[in-house]
Amino acid sequence: MTFDRRLFLRTATAGGAVLALGARGAAPAAAAPGGFPDYRHVGTLLTADRLAYNPTGEIIFPCIRGVYDRLSNPLGRYYLYYGPHDAPGGICLAYGDSLEGPFTEYPGNPIVSSTWSPHYKVSHVASPHVLWNADAREMWLYFHGENTTTRLARSTDGVRFSYDKTVLTTAMLPAGTTEASYARVFRHDLPGRGARYVMLFMRNTTANHRDIGWGWSPDGRDWQFAQEPLIGHAAVGASDLSGPHLLTRGGSAYVVYHTDKGSGGNILITEVGADFSRRNHLGVFYDSRSGSPENGRAAAPSFGTDRGVPYMIYEAGERLSGAIAVARG
């Protein structure tokens, strides 16, 4: 299946006003599918070769969080979590005062490693997603290690974390599931399920095609999981999907996620509705560029706002040899 971006722009819902760039002085961005800003690449924030903690020469899966109004005496206005994937991996932190950078590497990286006695000893930990849990007034870190297991740790300062528990394993999913990782968690009410949090993650099976899975929870700790994928690879004409992120607009919910490079290497968007009952595949959310640093692949988006301007922080380039980049809406 191929997607025509022009068709999706014509059929996208209005969904409210498009955000302007304000003080940046540029013209307002065009509407993307779902009425979201049309993000444009600005630059590179992190490359593995410029980091002190660089055990494998690669970094993946950024998560950006504004902390200036949540934490006491933060290192910067924004915390950027990331890390290498391959063994030994490690959850890492950088901080800065603008979403366009620069970001400073935290000198104590990794802040979470592949051994955390007595809780686990694994080959690697990776894919940090940090949620500001307003109920607990803590930063909650979801991460995987091994690829079969997603874990939770908690912090009051976003730097020093205490281990909590395992929240997802392949054993909680249908037989034949081989991976349950790259999870992101969001505050989103599902009254019909008694839930206040939603988890999106990548799930793989013995068929070796990756889909987007999902679950729901009343508290962010104890979860139920759908036994069928939320978004299947075949439904959008791809071999593999990963890196899901939840966005909301105009009373509806949307999931953005990336495809494998063989299926376009782009970030796609599907409207799932406020109650996750809809499957409206809207096509390309962000079209990766053929030039550097994307080289035909954009992945694992995370979103933030800096003084009213929307940004997307994402992986740019081939998996395990790319950079952390930023696009502005």
Automatic annotation (TrEMBL):
InterPro entries: Glyco_hydro_beta-prop_sf, TAT_signal. Keywords: Signal. The keyword Zinc does not apply. Residues 1-31 form the signal peptide. It comes from the Bacteria. The keyword Signal applies. This is Twin-arginine translocation signal domain-containing protein. It comes from Streptomyces zingiberis.
